[in-house]
Amino acid sequence: MPGFVIRRLGTMLLTALCLTFIVFALTNMQPRLETLAKTQGSARMSDAEVQSWLAREGFDRPMLERYGEWLGVVPGWTREQADGTLRGRCIDRAGDAAAGTRCGVLQGYWGSSTRFNAEVGAVIGARLGATGMLMLWVVIVMVPSALAIGVLAGMREGSRTDRSLSTVSIVSTATPEYVSGVIFIALFASSTFGLSPLLREWGLMEANTLFLGNARSAMDRITFWNFTLPVMTIAMYGMGYIARMTRASMAEVMTQQYIRTARLKGASFPAVVLRHALRNALIAPFTVIMLQFPWLLNGVVIVEVLFSYPGFGWALVEGASNNDIELLLACSVVAVIVVLATQLISDIGYAWLNPRIRVG
Amino acid sequence: MRTITEHQPAPHPAALRYAAEYRDGRLGRREFLTRATALGMGAGAACGLIGVSARGALAQDHGAGTHGGTLRIQMDLKAMKEPRRFDWSELANFCRGWLEYLVEYNRDGTLRGMLLEDWEASDDASTYTLHLRRGVRWNNGDPFIAEDVAHNFALWCDESVAGNSMATRMTPLIDPATGRLRAGAVEILDDHTLQLHLATPSVAIIADISDYPAAVVHRSFNGGDPVENPLGTGPFLPEHYDTGLRGALVRNAGHDWWGSDAGAYLDRIEFVDLGTDPSSWLAAAEGGEIDMLYQTTGDFIDLFDAIGMSRSETVTAATLAVRFNQDSPPFDARDVRRAIQMAVDNGVVLELGYDDRGAPGENHHVAPLHPEYADIGPPRHDPEAAREMLASAGHGDTVFELISLDDSWQSASCDAVAAQMRDAGMRVERAILPGATFWNDWMAFPFSATEWNMRPLGVQVLALAYRTDGAWNETAFSNAEFDALLAEANSLADVDARRAVMARLQEILRDEGVLIQPYWRAVFRHFRPHVRNAGIHPTFEMHLYKYWLES
Predict the structure, then answer these.
(1) Backbone phi, then psi, for B520, in 5-degree steps?
(2) Using a CB-CB distance cutoff of 8 angstroms, which residues of chain B are in contact with residue A117?
(3) ipTM of model
């Protein structure tokens, strides 16, 4: 088991290294750097000014060297400015004494975000925190309801309950977020269309809209009003998928010999489902649920942008559209960690739930 | 040199001429006020000259408001820069809370002294005397003196600072040898009086120092982020500024602001950056999360009307320049440019591209709004002749690519241009680029459309965009006669004399086929009905101290 975990951590490190190098190479292509110079310097700089800006900010050196600086294995660049003062990667952060030292990921410095004008560590921390809240609520809504739907549908395969619940889950999982999000906003968050004007007319509602179609205020205070739509949009999609998996697994378990035995010995149907079928039926959905987490982290991109909720996905889009190099690098590291860590947990948990499988 | 204690300016001779023109109906009230105030008259005195009640003319800015409340504004919050490097009005709008300007360009076309009490120009527009407002203090208690202003001119004139957008406006004060403020160009006469000595006459200098990068900083300021050390003369203080997210200004209770008897009504002003998609602004407005927008465009104007927000509108000299880069073949051939111009009916572009919200342009980038505008008639529209002209230039089968930003009205306008070119038998492809890509290359595209904000005077845009050495010359237009005439126009205080020169300048621009300038835009802003005095400004300035909320 420890060997397995160490191997997995090694894979994680290697993947992160490869991915960040690719991201670094892509964001450091010359046209991208020029974009960066223009957003940072002035939107209407001339080509000569762009070149001098790139030189002043240390972008005129070989890419590998700068990647090494970001990692913290090569000392940060320093350069004397026209007015005699020193500038450099580490000096901008820690003062003149830091000239010639290393400051990179290994030293705990993730660089600075050009888009947000702040250190990447702080930006990623704050944005991941916001996404964490979103994911927490999504999981709270999604997992129990998906399992309930799946179990109810799968315990009597082919029944009317099964048919209708399956239809619901197929529809929900076949609707991507960018469709369901827009439909939700139109139906629930418009003062002139959908449900809100009706409710107001009937005197059931005081507010202008049933829900808020923009989750920016959830950054400070999460309320039922401002958080329902983004949470529902994400939860709907994942819910259908997990419910389908649970149903299949449940239906399979219900045909097993031991279930029939339990029925024959006189156990009531609810007791059979809860005591005998449930644990075995949850093995497959457990993996699916764990695999939903990395997907959640990436899938929230659409929802966070749609509802302008400043989480990880939103920061990723902002970083990408402004060529914020170091922010994008940190984002890719986070993505690698989340994907591989959840897979690790999923493997270990699978072995725990299913004694027939051993990790190691 | 005289020392001025009590200042009572005599009307500038040109101002008297403008007053006569106004009475003859040759000059509108708005143009008259811009011109007269640019020459150093107070708005009140200028109104007196034409027999308009100053109180009536200025009421829209000075309506007594109610104190208190929080205003929440949707606006992009880009990474902050030092003021002279501002490249977006949004940056300035946030800093307007505590950084003020020498002169303010108002919605009604007047230039009003803020940190200047008033100013005078010499007859040939080459010497300006600036009289500072007395009793102004910085929020650290220092008095505001001539040394502060001189320091700002030095900052503005420093060409060595990359992206210093004021340096392009301050050319007559810069020593070309050093790229800095010319010795003796700014002369301090006493603590409250300065004189500017321009190397070349300029009628635009007062309008230039009202522009958004000209925020006045303290004499100790030497670059850096103004939010970190918010030393200013204005009535608010920044509470926080999170790039891309939000910012807040609060009223600075400990500061004795010079204008406090008529302004700074709000307790708190919050800015929210909701991204560039107007549908999320709409969602936030419907939920009551924001009270006011920075600007409303396109189809969203009707949508914001529909949810019960008040609309404010103003006609501007802002435009979309569908321009050719003359360095890129085939647009180096004048006949190609002329033919494409002739294929396009500007009225149709206005209707299809901008919902008829504005006035048709005349392909020379000087607006009827500008005081020196000369009416040289509408441009010629003749698709048949255009087709023949293009064929005889040998480009009948050339495929043109028209590039635009992925902004709805800009791409719709370009689609309308392209469609009319196709109607005239030309082969056109369209490319729509996202902002980051577009602004990376905007000066170099062979054939593309650029949004231009307005300047108070016609000569200002011409100097910036079409002079050979213009900082934002995206057309690569270089014409010795044009440059010489423009210099001449800049030294003519007499608007009729200048209009004669302008007529020639406008003709050159049009005859050379420099650009298709389809329309002058009206701009719009929506706010909730209880927001007062917050009408949209033609150059998107937010005069925060004027805004108030009806309780």
Answers:
(1) -100, 130
(2) 79-80, 243
(3) 0.84
Inspect the interface and report whether the beta carbons of A192 and B307 lie closer than 8 Å.
yes
Q: Residues A67-118: pLDDT tens digits?
A: 998 888 888 888 777 667 777 788 777 777 777 788 888 888 888 898 888 8
pLDDT band of residue B9 (cuts 50, 70, 90) is very low
User: DSSP letters along B493-533, please?
Assistant: --HHHHHHHHHHHHHHHHHTT-EE--EEEEEEEEE-TTEES
**A129-353: CATH, from 3.40.50.740, 3.40.109.10, 3.40.720.10, 1.10.3720.10:** 1.10.3720.10
Rounded to a whole number of angstroms, the distance from the CA of A219 to the nearest CA of chain B is 10
Which 8-state DSSP code applies to residue B551?
A: -
Q: Do B289 and A212 touch (CB under 8 A)?
A: yes
Distance of residue A68 Cα from the nearest chain B Cα, in angstroms: 27
**Count of alpha carbons within 13 angstroms of residue A347, beta-carbon side:** 12
pLDDT band at B1 (very low <50, low <70, confident <90, very high): very low
Number of neighbours of residue B10 by Cβ within 10 angstroms: 11
Give the span between the Cα atoms of B28 and B138, in whole angstroms.
38
From B80, B162, B244, residue closest to A318, measured CB to CB: B244
pTM score, whole prediction: 0.80
CATH of B13-58+101-214 among 3.40.50.970, 3.90.76.10, 3.40.50.300, 1.10.1040.50: 3.90.76.10
What residue of B is the nearest CA neighbor of A218?
B289
Among B320, B442, B347, B14, smallest CA distance to A45 is for B442
Pick the CATH number of B236-309+528-549 from 3.40.50.1100, 3.40.50.300, 3.30.2000.10, 3.40.190.10: 3.40.190.10
Quick check: A115 and B437 CB within 8 A?
no
Q: Provide the chain B residues 128-187 that lie in CB contact (below 8 A) with chain A.
A: 160, 162-163, 165
